[in-house]
Structures are given as C-alpha cells and as structure tokens.
Amino acid sequence: MTTALAIAAAPVPQAGVDLLRIVQINEEIKRVVGVSFKINIMALNAIFLAKRAGTAARGFGVLSNELRVFSQNLRCCMQTLTGLIHGCVNEVSLVLQDNRLARLLGETAKLAPQQATLAGVMARRSRQSEQHLEQLFRLRRQLERALEEVFQMVELGGVLAKSAKIEAAYGQSFAPSLAQVSGEFDGVVEEIRGSLESLRRSPFFAGNRDR
Questions:
Q1: CA–CA separation, 7 vs 96, rounded Å?
Q2: What is the spatial distance between Cα 159 and Cα 163, in angstroms, rounded to a whole number?
C-alpha cells in the first residue's frame, strides 16, 4: 500500500477523539486558572490579616506574599499551556482535513486510474500530512513537558501552604484566624494538584508514548 493510500485508510476518528481530549484538557486548564485567581485574593486577605496580627505573624505574612507570587507564576504557566493547546487544536484540524482530502483523492483515483497527475498530487498531500502529524507530535510533547513543570511548581505551592499552617500557630490571639486561612490555602493547592494529576493521565498523551 502506498503512503498516500495508507493515509486514505488512516483512522479518521482518532483525530476527532484527540480533538475531544484537547477540549477536556482546555476545560481543566481554565479551572486551574480560576483557582489561581482565588489564591491571589486569599493571599491578599492573608497579608492584610498578618499585618493586623503584627510581629507574631510576620512569617505568615511572608509566606502569604510568596503564595501570591506563586498564583501569579501559575497563571503565566497556564497561559503557556493554553497557547500549546491552541496549537494542538490547529494541527488536529489540519490532520482531519488531510484525512478527508486523502479519502477523496483515493476515491477519485479508483474512478480515474489513468490520471497520471493524481499520483503526484496524492504524494504531495501525503508529505504535508506527515508534516502535520509530526508537528502535532512535537506540540504534544511540549505540552506534556510544560504540564510537568507546572506540577513541580504546584508542589512548591503545597510546601508554602503547609508552612503557612505551621506559622499560623505562632499568631497568638490571631492563631485561629490564621489557621483557617492557611487551611484554605492548603485545600486550594490540593485542588490544583488534583486537576494536574487528571491532566497527566489524559489519554491524549498516550500518542507520544506509543511512538
């Protein structure tokens, strides 16, 4: 079977499944971005609370500020993931177009096998299709690596949240309020970690491991 004919028989539904998985990943990314905004607001409130508590909550204030920086960095990283997702959508769309065109060309070749120029067109389209598949493979790897970097960042955010819980105990009369805020930090970071774990398990990345 020639490469062009092989593409004509390619599993078209796979690109459609990939598109669906990309949409699901994008929804999870948007959820994490929303939570990162929540951390930023929580951190601002925590900084204000630490100032009210005075020197007893100085460490808590420093950690709250670090969590605010963490939320800002997290949003930047999620923007990178969003950009890669858009690139994947574009490439999957091109793969779908390639498959449709290859199928049409294959059917035309059966009806008019004497058309010498058709084989050249099919070969050219085949090369273009392979380029799109390669680009999709590269984008998928970039997305997987970027996701791993975000996960490492969230691990650090988890350490900051747990440290804030420890510092809250030194807040004297403000200790209960600080403990509540630090507990909320910890819960939100855990929520993000859960989302990222879900993204890591996405079948969309299985295409990379199979190659």
A1: 11
A2: 6
Contacts of residue 199, Cβ cutoff 8 Å, sequence gap at least 6 = 25, 28, 29, 147
How far is residue 15's CA from residue 53's CA, in Å, rounded to a whole number?
Answer: 56
Distance (Å, whole) CA 199 – CA 85: 12
- Retrieve residue 133's tokens: 């598949």
| Length in residues, the chain | 211
d(CA 91, CA 15): 10
DSSP-derived letter for residue 205 is G
pLDDT, tens digit, 9 for 90 and up, residues 80-89 = 999 999 999 9
Q: What is the pTM of this model?
A: 0.82
Sign of CA dihedral 65, 48, 32, 179: positive
